[in-house]
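Progress narrative, work stream C.
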Amino acid sequence: MHKVTPVLLAGGTGTRLWPLSRKSYPKQFSKLTGNHSLFQQSAERCVSSAHMTFSEPLIMTNNEFRFIVAEQLRRIGIGNYSIMIEPKPKNTGSAILAAAMHIARDDPDTLCLATPTDHILKDRMQFHKAIQSGLEGLEKRTIVTFGVKPTRAETGYGYIEFESKTADHAIKVKRFIEKPSSQVAEEMILSEKFLWNMGIFLFRAGDMIEQFNLHYRALLKPAEDAILNSHEDLDFIRLDSAAWEKMADISIDFAIMEKSKNLVAVPYHGEWTDMGTWESVWEQENISADGLVLSGNASAINCSNSLLRSEGSGQHIVGVGLKNILAIAMNDAVLVADKDSSQSIRDVIPLLKSKGINQAEIFPTDYRPWGWFEVLIEQKNFKVKRILVYPKAALSLQSHEHRSEHWVVVEGRALISLDSKEFVLSHSQSISIPIGSKHRLTNVEDVPLEIIEIQMGSYLGEDDIVRYEDKYKRE
């Protein structure tokens, strides 16, 4: 049986799913539906089965997400993987080329499956059967793409057109159509020659490089330099920044798929959505007879055809008499929109950025390699945080020039290093950290450590940190 190397693309952002999806913590890492994040579900789909054999995955992501990726894989029991860090997001074209070049150094005939990590595919076995059909149709220099039969005249998706009617085996692609008008989409839905483009590609590593040589040669040299000058950083492969800066910000569709003459496509016979909008989230949930979806702490009176969702454990959202409404409540931001305007939510981000509002891009929970924190309250000269430290993890040895801190242990046991002394604190015990003191917080247990931190000082920004030692090699 052929063995396929998954290339998981996890570096993008989902602007139409604000406020849950933001630049600092995009949708692929959130639990939009089900018990696992979209990224975790994508990784689980690429675990071997009776129909498919996979090698360990290569994850393409950026510097800000590298520890989030590693932690989410650990939580679902995937321990063998490689993570390649893109110095800056450059879209799927550059990411897939870099992955192909890295893999081809060992064997250019290695079979690769490049897939987004922010989609929903509910039938894993059907997915593996589609890949197997793709392998049967994969000839030398051929690229296989995957599509799903359209169920509506969707203008937010790309389409694949064929010379003849679609079939269960790999068939030659005529062209790609990117996000058509409503009229064109209506015409295509009546034809049997179109599939929605899932953005998933099967190829030999060397063949993908050859496609770039034919259709987008300008990317080859900077990609080659980025790989050649890459280096290991802890458990990550860090691409060379100077070379990567010269890479074009271009999708794989525009760079290769719309130009290549060696494309075939295979249909996936299962439910699929790219989870690109809140309307698509609404479609995936348990919709009541009157079209109402309640998620989290939400209640409704006389509401229909609406999604009410609360992401805060201490926040309850109530809708009264709503029709065709999306209402998403988080601790720091609330979205209320007409469901028919779901595609326009992306316009929220530039609006908020023009007003200097942090919620445009900054997620309320700040994820770090050792755990995470969230700000509970912030006023002039003081800030209160909730901090969670993963088992056996530790913050850097650090000091602050402008603030003191007071720590109270809520759950677990904490080892505190304070200048030349060490203390072990348990539930309800506390300690004060003076301005300028070297200190470190370590979780000595096999369960998470949770503390409340109270900061006081003239400046409370996250950049007021002087690091002396850091196991994660952060500057």
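Work stream C, second folded protein:
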Amino acid sequence: MLRRYLVIWLLLCAPLGGAQSASILPDAPVPAAVAKPEAANPAPRTFAFAALEQPGSAQQGAAPQSQAPAADPDPGPDLTMFPHSQTARYWISGQTNTIFQAKPGFHSPYQGPNSLDNAGEYKTSLVETLYLGYQPRHNLRYNTDLLLDFESAGGRGLGEALGLAGFTNLDVVRNPNLGTAPYLSRGGIHQTFGLTSEMVESDRDQFSLATEVPVRRFETRVGKMGANDFMDVNDVANDSHLQFLNWTIDDNGAWDYAADTRGYTVGGLLEYDDRNWSARYGIFAMPIVANGIALDWAFSRAHGQNWEYELRHSFIPGRKGTTKILSFANTAHMGNYREAVQDYLAGLTPTPNIVSVERFGTVKYGFSWNNEQDITENFRIGTRFGWNDDKEESYAYTEDAQSVVIAVDYAGARWHRPADKIGTAFVSNAIKKDHQNYLKYGGLGFILGDGRLNYGRENIVESYYTWHAWKGLFFALDVQHIDDPGYNRDRGPVWVEAVRGHMDF
């Protein structure tokens, strides 16, 4: 089955075959704003494509600004409806993202309470975000940013966002009963502590208002945020507004990062940046219950700890390349899959019930490997591998213990569409034996539960084309093919088609 999906993935990659001739290709657009896309699951993220790569970017560990080459006189296409000041002490921007998805009926001899419905259906999601920022004073070495974002998320996902570990729309909030009323998505303080007067250029965006930063520095962030705003970022596969839509392609499915059901949490992040490497540590609040909207503020009993090391080194001379290694450990009121199954087999519960064996002090841990590599000016490859122990219940993100992703994208400069992008990705998700048995005997997670299980890896292929229509207006076509949905060989395959409209202000 895996061989079959690799063949499908390679066929979808076929249009990229001419990307290897670097000498005839113009520069590609790259994500603006420090290559740090902006939202968390299930709430969305967004960033614009810069017309040209910024020389000397602090995120690439490049030479100081004084050694940077002269800027290209061609500014490229406008990628926002209104220009953003590079000198003002404030930041105001916004975005809207609308996704229409549909699927036909598919083979399903049975389904349970948490199954993806096998009937044909269509759903629409809408997310709107307002980003605000202010610099109390101009001091590049010791810069302070006050950040505040408001968001509204509406619509529903196919099958009420159930039945898939790799769900098909990252913009969907898994609890549709939360409604569309605006809410505070992010709010906090970003502080830079420069360790040198040597400065490098930095892309100004909604997360960092400085245009120059010290080449060696500490950065702290405290407040409400998305943990994946700043960790496990991959430029090729990280953005549901301009790139892929699937949860386990845009984020590492095996990283059960601390978040409420909208994808946000409260905590702090400490980061050290040097010329070619960075290190980060974050501690964040966990939800009170699995996939819950309320956070447990008692960090002494529940928290998610995350460590990440980033090396900005390319395997191809003259190209950009970055490798990140992340590990995490969550402590929360979680249950154990094996204990839930044992209680069921002993006749203590009518079906395995993970909630009945939950206790404080339970620890879930894992790690991930993340790489992005430019092959030519327009062609990039991104890869991820994630793993967690999967003994304890999936609690905050999705039900996934192992995730392997390979994604490619190609910018449209060759056909005179530099802000257009075409991408293809393959992801394979898996769970371990205790989790399999839990679902096999009829247990329910917060995402999965067909009532029984004929286990197989959940394999997904996704392709998209993003078209830059005018200034900050983008449209996209997207298709996903899912085999063994919810790790169940008895169901599927499933085809999901999508149309996306996105606007940056």
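Residues 2-504 form a domain with the Porin fold (CATH 2.40.160.10). No further action is required on this item.
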